Amino acid sequence: MFRLGIVGCGGMGNHHANVMSKLDDVKIVAACDIVKERADALAEKFGAKSYTDFRDLLDEVDVVCEAVVPRARPEVVTGCANAGKHIFSEKPLSLCLGDANRIVEAVDRNKIIFMTDYVLRFTNPYRAVHEVFASGELGRLVNVWTRRYMPVDMRGRWYGEDEQSGGVAMDFMSHDVDQLRWFGGKAKVVFGSVDRVRDGINADEHAHATVVFEQGTGTSDVSWCSPASLGTFGVVGSLGSVIVDGSGKVRKRIEGQDEVVLDVNARTETDLKGVIQKDSAASTETVQQHFFRCLREGKTPLVNVHEAYETLRVVLGAKESARTGKSVDL
């Protein structure tokens, strides 16, 4: 039985607690938040102990699910890693490479299993399309893209403060950059742009990135400020393409063949808690299930600390490019 502690009892902390508590070999024994009332509420729900300092629960747990604000993440993750606790962490890894390097060093030195919640790799249609691409059926990568618009007003929330969230590029587009990297591999160059559209927000709320890989390119366009929602995604290969155009269909066409519609869940919307979609019959393993399977089997998670670090490098490069107006070598 894995003894689990939840650190950060806001929206995502509660979401992960609800999902993880349903796993047969997981028991939530501790809940921690700097706001005592939130820790108390989650602890009461699961019959756990309540804490306001994560250090106080480390002797009680084997595993930590960390869902604090990004600014606080390095201290929490390095503290838990140095205590030898396995960690399921929210994204991004940190807000700067200096803190990210500290996290990577602590995870590697203590030989813990660490996973970041980049959930697009575990939800359809993204996962299903990657399986098609990985099979070689589409040939070599020409371009992979995502466009996701989630209308939301972040003014007055911590998301709307760049020093706390990193803005839409770090909080939202990092999901898409991780997805692009899953298809493209090592990123060589990134060009980015960001925009603060509405008065009263202290973080970017629209962002775009173009990533050049060793073979092929990737593009991502994300928004909090678009009044209309949108979710599109696709891959163009040298032999074929797969398009998710927002119509509810996933269309595949191989050169010289008729177009076919893939039988997968085509939802690409994101709700305000950051949950991309609910589990569907087409999904085989959730991100939380994958993490605990890796714990049981001693395997490296699909989105380990080094994968999260590379995604952070690309996003920070896009933000630097937006500042300077020049592309950034990675």
**Helical stretch tally:** 9
DSSP strand count: 15
Give the N-terminus to C-terminus distance in angstroms: 42 Å
Strand content: 25-35%
Strands in their spatial order, largest beta sheet: 14-13-12-11-7-10-9-8-15
User: What is the percent of helical residues?
Assistant: 25-40%
Which spans have pLDDT < 50 for at least 5 consecutive residues?
269-283
Secondary-structure element sequence?
Answer: EHEHEEHEHEHEHHEEEEEEEHHE
Based on helices, strands and strand pairing, what is the structural class?
A: alpha/beta
Shape from CA axes?
globular
Q: What's the architecture of the largest domain in CATH terms?
A: 2-Layer Sandwich
CATH topology of the largest domain: Dihydrodipicolinate Reductase, domain 2
For the record, the CATH class of the largest domain is Alpha Beta
Summarize the biggest pleated sheet: 9 strands, mixed
Annotated CATH homologous superfamily of the largest domain:
Dihydrodipicolinate Reductase, domain 2
Total of domains: 2
User: How is the quaternary structure best described?
Assistant: single chain
Rg estimate, integer Å: 20 Å
Mean pLDDT: 93
